[in-house]
Design a protein that fits this description.
It is a single chain. The chain is α+β, with helices and mostly antiparallel strands. The chain has 6 helices and 22 strands. The chain folds into 3 domains: 75 residues, GMP Synthetase, Chain A, domain 3 (2-Layer Sandwich), CATH 3.30.300; 70 residues, GMP Synthetase, Chain A, domain 3 (2-Layer Sandwich), CATH 3.30.300; 182 residues, Beta Barrel (Thrombin, subunit H), CATH 2.40.10.10. The strands form 4 sheets. Strands 9-8-12-13-14-11-10 form a 7-stranded antiparallel sheet, with helices on one face. It has a 6-stranded antiparallel β-barrel with strand order 17-18-19-22-21-20. Helix 1 crosses helix 2. The chain is globular and about 60 Å long.
Length: 395
Protein backbone atom coordinates (compact mmCIF):
# COMPACT_ATOMS: atom_id res chain seq x y z
CA UNK A 1 0.00 0.00 0.00
CA UNK A 2 1.56 3.28 -1.11
CA UNK A 3 1.28 6.04 1.45
CA UNK A 4 1.01 8.66 -1.28
CA UNK A 5 -2.35 7.22 -2.32
CA UNK A 6 -3.95 8.54 0.87
CA UNK A 7 -3.18 12.24 0.82
CA UNK A 8 -6.07 14.38 2.01
CA UNK A 9 -5.62 17.54 -0.06
CA UNK A 10 -9.00 19.09 -0.82
CA UNK A 11 -11.00 16.51 1.13
CA UNK A 12 -13.68 17.55 3.62
CA UNK A 13 -13.31 14.98 6.38
CA UNK A 14 -14.48 14.55 9.93
CA UNK A 15 -13.44 11.03 10.82
CA UNK A 16 -11.73 8.82 13.34
CA UNK A 17 -8.45 8.96 11.49
CA UNK A 18 -7.85 12.07 9.46
CA UNK A 19 -4.80 14.13 10.30
CA UNK A 20 -4.96 17.04 7.86
CA UNK A 21 -4.23 17.82 4.26
CA UNK A 22 -0.48 17.44 4.50
CA UNK A 23 -0.17 14.20 6.44
CA UNK A 24 -0.23 10.58 5.34
CA UNK A 25 -0.82 7.19 6.91
CA UNK A 26 2.39 5.49 7.98
CA UNK A 27 3.67 2.51 6.06
CA UNK A 28 3.57 -0.78 7.92
CA UNK A 29 6.64 -2.09 6.15
CA UNK A 30 9.28 -3.08 8.66
CA UNK A 31 6.93 -2.68 11.62
CA UNK A 32 5.79 -6.29 12.00
CA UNK A 33 6.44 -7.55 15.51
CA UNK A 34 8.15 -10.94 15.50
CA UNK A 35 7.82 -13.65 18.14
CA UNK A 36 11.00 -15.65 17.89
CA UNK A 37 10.07 -18.54 20.16
CA UNK A 38 8.52 -21.73 18.84
CA UNK A 39 4.73 -21.51 19.09
CA UNK A 40 2.93 -23.89 21.44
CA UNK A 41 -0.44 -25.54 20.68
CA UNK A 42 -2.16 -22.59 22.38
CA UNK A 43 -0.07 -19.91 20.68
CA UNK A 44 -0.20 -17.92 17.48
CA UNK A 45 2.63 -18.20 15.01
CA UNK A 46 5.21 -15.50 14.39
CA UNK A 47 3.63 -14.76 11.03
CA UNK A 48 0.41 -13.69 12.73
CA UNK A 49 2.06 -10.95 14.81
CA UNK A 50 0.38 -7.61 14.08
CA UNK A 51 1.62 -4.99 11.68
CA UNK A 52 1.37 -1.56 13.22
CA UNK A 53 2.35 1.93 12.12
CA UNK A 54 5.70 3.35 13.15
CA UNK A 55 3.80 6.03 15.07
CA UNK A 56 2.08 3.51 17.33
CA UNK A 57 5.40 1.87 18.09
CA UNK A 58 6.86 5.28 18.95
CA UNK A 59 3.96 6.08 21.30
CA UNK A 60 4.32 2.74 23.08
CA UNK A 61 8.05 3.25 23.51
CA UNK A 62 7.52 6.74 24.90
CA UNK A 63 4.74 5.97 27.38
CA UNK A 64 5.79 2.46 28.46
CA UNK A 65 9.53 3.16 28.54
CA UNK A 66 10.46 0.55 25.92
CA UNK A 67 13.18 0.22 23.32
CA UNK A 68 12.20 -0.43 19.71
CA UNK A 69 13.06 -4.11 20.13
CA UNK A 70 11.09 -4.38 23.37
CA UNK A 71 8.04 -2.71 21.80
CA UNK A 72 8.11 -5.12 18.84
CA UNK A 73 8.46 -8.12 21.14
CA UNK A 74 5.64 -6.95 23.39
CA UNK A 75 3.28 -6.43 20.46
CA UNK A 76 3.97 -9.95 19.24
CA UNK A 77 3.45 -11.50 22.66
CA UNK A 78 0.23 -9.55 23.22
CA UNK A 79 -1.02 -10.84 19.87
CA UNK A 80 -0.32 -14.38 21.09
CA UNK A 81 -2.16 -13.67 24.35
CA UNK A 82 -5.13 -12.20 22.50
CA UNK A 83 -5.51 -15.27 20.28
CA UNK A 84 -4.91 -17.66 23.18
CA UNK A 85 -7.26 -16.20 25.79
CA UNK A 86 -10.53 -17.45 24.30
CA UNK A 87 -9.20 -20.99 23.86
CA UNK A 88 -7.90 -21.09 27.42
CA UNK A 89 -11.29 -19.96 28.68
CA UNK A 90 -12.98 -22.77 26.79
CA UNK A 91 -10.62 -25.41 28.16
CA UNK A 92 -10.98 -24.24 31.78
CA UNK A 93 -14.77 -23.97 31.55
CA UNK A 94 -16.56 -23.15 34.80
CA UNK A 95 -13.25 -23.16 36.70
CA UNK A 96 -12.00 -20.16 34.68
CA UNK A 97 -10.98 -17.33 37.00
CA UNK A 98 -9.99 -14.74 34.39
CA UNK A 99 -6.69 -14.00 32.70
CA UNK A 100 -4.25 -11.18 32.11
CA UNK A 101 -1.10 -10.39 30.16
CA UNK A 102 1.99 -10.25 32.40
CA UNK A 103 4.37 -7.70 30.94
CA UNK A 104 7.26 -8.99 33.06
CA UNK A 105 7.63 -12.25 31.14
CA UNK A 106 5.36 -11.65 28.15
CA UNK A 107 2.97 -14.51 28.95
CA UNK A 108 -0.76 -14.86 29.44
CA UNK A 109 -1.61 -15.72 33.05
CA UNK A 110 -4.73 -17.88 33.24
CA UNK A 111 -6.51 -18.26 36.58
CA UNK A 112 -8.50 -21.34 37.56
CA UNK A 113 -10.11 -22.85 40.62
CA UNK A 114 -9.19 -26.37 39.45
CA UNK A 115 -5.55 -27.46 39.97
CA UNK A 116 -6.02 -30.43 37.64
CA UNK A 117 -7.24 -28.28 34.76
CA UNK A 118 -4.43 -25.82 35.36
CA UNK A 119 -1.95 -28.39 34.10
CA UNK A 120 -3.89 -28.86 30.86
CA UNK A 121 -3.33 -25.29 29.63
CA UNK A 122 0.17 -24.58 30.98
CA UNK A 123 2.66 -23.88 28.19
CA UNK A 124 5.61 -21.58 27.84
CA UNK A 125 3.19 -18.87 26.60
CA UNK A 126 0.49 -19.57 29.21
CA UNK A 127 1.14 -19.62 32.93
CA UNK A 128 -1.59 -20.77 35.30
CA UNK A 129 -2.48 -19.75 38.83
CA UNK A 130 -4.94 -21.51 41.11
CA UNK A 131 -7.34 -19.06 42.79
CA UNK A 132 -10.26 -19.23 45.17
CA UNK A 133 -13.02 -17.67 43.07
CA UNK A 134 -14.10 -18.27 39.49
CA UNK A 135 -14.72 -15.41 37.08
CA UNK A 136 -18.43 -16.25 37.16
CA UNK A 137 -18.51 -15.89 40.96
CA UNK A 138 -16.77 -12.52 40.86
CA UNK A 139 -18.97 -11.29 38.02
CA UNK A 140 -22.02 -12.26 40.06
CA UNK A 141 -20.79 -10.23 43.04
CA UNK A 142 -20.10 -7.25 40.78
CA UNK A 143 -23.58 -7.54 39.27
CA UNK A 144 -25.04 -7.54 42.79
CA UNK A 145 -23.32 -4.22 43.52
CA UNK A 146 -24.68 -2.87 40.22
CA UNK A 147 -28.18 -3.72 41.41
CA UNK A 148 -27.53 -2.11 44.81
CA UNK A 149 -26.44 1.15 43.14
CA UNK A 150 -29.28 1.41 40.64
CA UNK A 151 -28.98 4.56 38.55
CA UNK A 152 -26.58 6.36 40.88
CA UNK A 153 -24.39 5.43 43.85
CA UNK A 154 -23.29 7.93 46.54
CA UNK A 155 -21.00 10.65 45.20
CA UNK A 156 -17.95 9.45 47.16
CA UNK A 157 -18.12 6.02 45.51
CA UNK A 158 -16.06 6.21 42.31
CA UNK A 159 -16.90 2.75 40.95
CA UNK A 160 -16.33 -0.99 41.21
CA UNK A 161 -14.84 -3.72 39.06
CA UNK A 162 -13.49 -7.27 39.01
CA UNK A 163 -9.72 -7.16 39.60
CA UNK A 164 -8.45 -10.28 37.85
CA UNK A 165 -4.92 -10.00 39.26
CA UNK A 166 -6.08 -10.14 42.89
CA UNK A 167 -9.11 -12.42 42.30
CA UNK A 168 -11.40 -9.92 43.98
CA UNK A 169 -14.02 -7.24 43.40
CA UNK A 170 -12.68 -3.75 44.10
CA UNK A 171 -14.78 -0.77 45.19
CA UNK A 172 -12.97 2.54 44.73
CA UNK A 173 -13.93 5.53 46.89
CA UNK A 174 -12.82 9.15 47.08
CA UNK A 175 -11.46 9.39 50.61
CA UNK A 176 -11.84 13.19 50.56
CA UNK A 177 -15.61 12.93 50.03
CA UNK A 178 -16.48 9.95 52.25
CA UNK A 179 -19.68 10.44 54.22
CA UNK A 180 -22.21 8.28 56.06
CA UNK A 181 -24.15 7.52 52.87
CA UNK A 182 -21.05 6.25 51.07
CA UNK A 183 -19.92 4.19 54.08
CA UNK A 184 -23.38 2.63 54.31
CA UNK A 185 -23.28 1.72 50.59
CA UNK A 186 -19.85 0.12 50.96
CA UNK A 187 -20.95 -1.81 54.05
CA UNK A 188 -23.98 -3.22 52.21
CA UNK A 189 -21.85 -4.07 49.16
CA UNK A 190 -19.36 -5.98 51.34
CA UNK A 191 -21.90 -7.71 53.57
CA UNK A 192 -21.24 -11.44 53.51
CA UNK A 193 -18.84 -11.11 50.58
CA UNK A 194 -15.21 -11.95 51.24
CA UNK A 195 -14.58 -11.28 47.55
CA UNK A 196 -14.88 -7.50 48.00
CA UNK A 197 -12.16 -5.04 49.01
CA UNK A 198 -12.09 -1.24 49.14
CA UNK A 199 -9.41 1.00 47.59
CA UNK A 200 -9.22 4.69 48.48
CA UNK A 201 -8.47 7.32 45.83
CA UNK A 202 -7.97 11.07 46.06
CA UNK A 203 -10.12 12.16 43.08
CA UNK A 204 -13.35 11.24 41.34
CA UNK A 205 -13.95 10.47 37.65
CA UNK A 206 -15.79 12.88 35.39
CA UNK A 207 -16.75 12.70 31.73
CA UNK A 208 -14.03 14.22 29.54
CA UNK A 209 -16.21 16.46 27.39
CA UNK A 210 -15.61 20.17 27.67
CA UNK A 211 -16.19 23.37 25.78
CA UNK A 212 -12.73 23.32 24.77
CA UNK A 213 -10.86 16.68 20.97
CA UNK A 214 -8.76 10.78 16.68
CA UNK A 215 -10.08 14.53 15.27
CA UNK A 216 -12.10 17.11 17.10
CA UNK A 217 -15.76 17.74 16.45
CA UNK A 218 -18.08 20.34 17.91
CA UNK A 219 -21.59 19.80 19.24
CA UNK A 220 -24.19 22.46 18.36
CA UNK A 221 -21.24 24.77 17.57
CA UNK A 222 -20.17 24.65 21.22
CA UNK A 223 -18.63 21.81 23.26
CA UNK A 224 -15.83 19.72 21.76
CA UNK A 225 -15.28 15.95 21.74
CA UNK A 226 -13.15 13.50 19.75
CA UNK A 227 -14.14 11.06 17.04
CA UNK A 228 -13.91 7.40 17.99
CA UNK A 229 -13.92 5.19 14.87
CA UNK A 230 -15.29 5.53 11.37
CA UNK A 231 -18.20 3.25 10.56
CA UNK A 232 -20.18 2.94 7.37
CA UNK A 233 -22.41 5.99 7.43
CA UNK A 234 -20.59 7.98 10.10
CA UNK A 235 -18.58 7.49 13.28
CA UNK A 236 -18.96 6.33 16.89
CA UNK A 237 -18.10 8.38 19.95
CA UNK A 238 -19.13 8.89 23.58
CA UNK A 239 -22.76 9.25 24.61
CA UNK A 240 -22.23 12.15 26.97
CA UNK A 241 -20.93 14.26 24.08
CA UNK A 242 -24.37 14.86 22.57
CA UNK A 243 -27.99 13.79 22.28
CA UNK A 244 -29.88 12.42 19.29
CA UNK A 245 -30.60 15.30 16.92
CA UNK A 246 -27.64 17.48 18.01
CA UNK A 247 -25.62 18.85 15.12
CA UNK A 248 -21.92 18.12 14.59
CA UNK A 249 -19.48 20.48 12.91
CA UNK A 250 -15.77 20.48 12.10
CA UNK A 251 -13.10 22.99 13.12
CA UNK A 252 -14.10 25.24 10.21
CA UNK A 253 -17.68 25.45 11.44
CA UNK A 254 -19.02 23.27 8.60
CA UNK A 255 -21.94 21.07 9.67
CA UNK A 256 -20.84 17.51 8.90
CA UNK A 257 -23.49 15.36 10.56
CA UNK A 258 -26.05 14.75 13.29
CA UNK A 259 -26.18 12.49 16.34
CA UNK A 260 -28.33 9.56 15.18
CA UNK A 261 -28.42 7.91 18.62
CA UNK A 262 -26.87 8.42 22.04
CA UNK A 263 -26.93 6.72 25.44
CA UNK A 264 -25.69 8.26 28.72
CA UNK A 265 -25.64 7.41 31.56
CA UNK A 266 -26.03 3.61 32.02
CA UNK A 267 -23.79 3.28 28.94
CA UNK A 268 -21.66 5.96 27.34
CA UNK A 269 -21.79 5.64 23.56
CA UNK A 270 -23.23 7.31 20.50
CA UNK A 271 -23.05 7.35 16.75
CA UNK A 272 -23.07 10.29 14.40
CA UNK A 273 -24.55 9.99 10.91
CA UNK A 274 -22.41 12.10 8.58
CA UNK A 275 -23.62 14.15 5.64
CA UNK A 276 -22.96 13.56 1.96
CA UNK A 277 -19.47 14.76 0.98
CA UNK A 278 -17.79 13.69 4.21
CA UNK A 279 -15.02 11.18 3.54
CA UNK A 280 -14.64 8.44 6.15
CA UNK A 281 -11.26 6.81 6.72
CA UNK A 282 -10.44 3.59 8.58
CA UNK A 283 -7.48 5.00 10.49
CA UNK A 284 -6.75 6.73 13.80
CA UNK A 285 -4.77 9.94 14.03
CA UNK A 286 -1.51 9.76 15.94
CA UNK A 287 -0.90 13.50 16.22
CA UNK A 288 2.70 12.82 15.24
CA UNK A 289 2.51 12.71 11.45
CA UNK A 290 1.21 9.13 11.26
CA UNK A 291 -2.08 7.37 10.80
CA UNK A 292 -2.65 4.20 12.79
CA UNK A 293 -4.16 1.13 11.17
CA UNK A 294 -7.57 -0.21 12.18
CA UNK A 295 -7.72 -3.84 11.06
CA UNK A 296 -10.46 -5.22 13.34
CA UNK A 297 -11.87 -5.08 16.86
CA UNK A 298 -10.51 -8.18 18.65
CA UNK A 299 -10.45 -7.58 22.40
CA UNK A 300 -7.03 -7.28 24.03
CA UNK A 301 -6.19 -9.09 27.29
CA UNK A 302 -6.02 -7.30 30.63
CA UNK A 303 -2.41 -6.17 31.05
CA UNK A 304 -1.95 -5.45 27.33
CA UNK A 305 -0.53 -2.18 26.12
CA UNK A 306 -3.12 0.23 24.75
CA UNK A 307 -3.12 3.70 23.18
CA UNK A 308 -5.79 6.32 22.80
CA UNK A 309 -6.11 9.33 20.53
CA UNK A 310 -7.85 12.54 21.52
CA UNK A 311 -7.96 16.10 20.27
CA UNK A 312 -6.76 17.67 23.52
CA UNK A 313 -3.72 15.57 24.45
CA UNK A 314 -3.03 13.59 21.25
CA UNK A 315 -1.86 9.97 21.42
CA UNK A 316 -1.19 8.53 24.89
CA UNK A 317 -0.44 4.93 25.90
CA UNK A 318 -0.53 2.67 28.95
CA UNK A 319 -2.02 -0.66 29.96
CA UNK A 320 -5.46 -2.22 30.46
CA UNK A 321 -6.10 -2.67 34.20
CA UNK A 322 -9.61 -4.18 34.34
CA UNK A 323 -12.73 -4.75 32.28
CA UNK A 324 -16.43 -4.29 32.96
CA UNK A 325 -15.98 -1.61 35.60
CA UNK A 326 -18.99 0.29 36.83
CA UNK A 327 -18.15 4.00 37.15
CA UNK A 328 -20.18 6.45 39.21
CA UNK A 329 -20.13 9.86 37.46
CA UNK A 330 -21.91 12.91 38.86
CA UNK A 331 -24.46 12.53 36.03
CA UNK A 332 -25.17 8.87 36.84
CA UNK A 333 -23.75 5.35 36.82
CA UNK A 334 -22.17 3.89 33.67
CA UNK A 335 -21.63 0.15 33.22
CA UNK A 336 -19.25 -1.98 31.17
CA UNK A 337 -16.26 0.38 31.06
CA UNK A 338 -12.62 -0.67 30.80
CA UNK A 339 -10.15 0.76 33.33
CA UNK A 340 -6.68 1.91 32.21
CA UNK A 341 -3.71 3.90 33.53
CA UNK A 342 -3.66 6.10 30.43
CA UNK A 343 -4.09 9.83 30.99
CA UNK A 344 -6.73 12.01 29.32
CA UNK A 345 -8.24 15.47 29.62
CA UNK A 346 -11.49 17.28 28.73
CA UNK A 347 -12.05 17.25 24.97
CA UNK A 348 -10.50 13.77 24.59
CA UNK A 349 -13.95 12.24 25.21
CA UNK A 350 -15.17 9.90 22.52
CA UNK A 351 -11.69 9.40 21.10
CA UNK A 352 -10.22 6.15 19.75
CA UNK A 353 -8.60 3.36 21.78
CA UNK A 354 -6.45 0.81 19.92
CA UNK A 355 -4.23 -2.13 20.86
CA UNK A 356 -1.78 -2.91 18.05
CA UNK A 357 -4.13 -2.52 15.06
CA UNK A 358 -7.36 -3.58 16.82
CA UNK A 359 -10.05 -1.06 17.76
CA UNK A 360 -10.89 -1.31 21.46
CA UNK A 361 -13.25 1.49 22.44
CA UNK A 362 -14.05 5.18 22.87
CA UNK A 363 -13.00 7.45 25.73
CA UNK A 364 -15.61 7.90 28.43
CA UNK A 365 -14.01 9.73 31.37
CA UNK A 366 -11.60 9.49 34.24
CA UNK A 367 -9.62 11.33 36.87
CA UNK A 368 -6.25 13.08 36.81
CA UNK A 369 -4.61 14.65 33.76
CA UNK A 370 -1.65 14.24 31.40
CA UNK A 371 0.68 16.27 33.61
CA UNK A 372 0.37 14.26 36.82
CA UNK A 373 -1.13 11.08 35.30
CA UNK A 374 -4.48 9.50 35.97
CA UNK A 375 -7.05 6.79 35.40
CA UNK A 376 -9.18 6.76 32.24
CA UNK A 377 -12.09 4.56 31.22
CA UNK A 378 -13.32 3.59 27.77
CA UNK A 379 -16.53 2.06 26.48
CA UNK A 380 -15.73 -1.02 24.40
CA UNK A 381 -16.39 -0.61 20.70
CA UNK A 382 -17.96 -4.01 19.92
CA UNK A 383 -21.06 -3.42 22.10
CA UNK A 384 -21.49 -0.03 20.39
CA UNK A 385 -21.37 -1.61 16.94
CA UNK A 386 -23.82 -4.29 18.07
CA UNK A 387 -26.23 -1.84 19.70
CA UNK A 388 -26.56 0.29 16.57
CA UNK A 389 -25.97 -2.35 13.88
CA UNK A 390 -22.80 -0.64 12.62
CA UNK A 391 -19.66 -1.90 10.85
CA UNK A 392 -16.16 -0.50 11.24
CA UNK A 393 -14.40 0.94 8.23
CA UNK A 394 -11.04 -0.84 8.16
CA UNK A 395 -7.64 0.21 6.85
Amino acid sequence: MKTSAYRLAGVLALTAAVVGASLQPASAEGDAAVLTSTPSPLSTSASSAPKVSAGLSEALRRDLGLTAEQAADRLAREETARATEARVRDVLGSSYGGSFFDERDGALVALTTDPVKAATVSTKDVRTRVVRYSAAELDSVKTGIDALAGRHAPDAVNGWYVDVRTNSVVITVNKNKLDATARDFVAKARAGREHVRVVEETASPRPLADVVGGWPYYINFGGRCSVGFSVYGGFVSAGHCGRAGDTVSDHNGVVTGTFAASTFPYYDYSWVRTNAGVTLWGYVEGYNGYWYYVRGSAQAAVGSGICRSGSTTGMRCGTILARNQTVNYPQGTVYGLTRTNVCAEPGDSGGSWISANQAQGVTSGGSGNCTSGGTTYYQEVNPILSAYGLTLILS
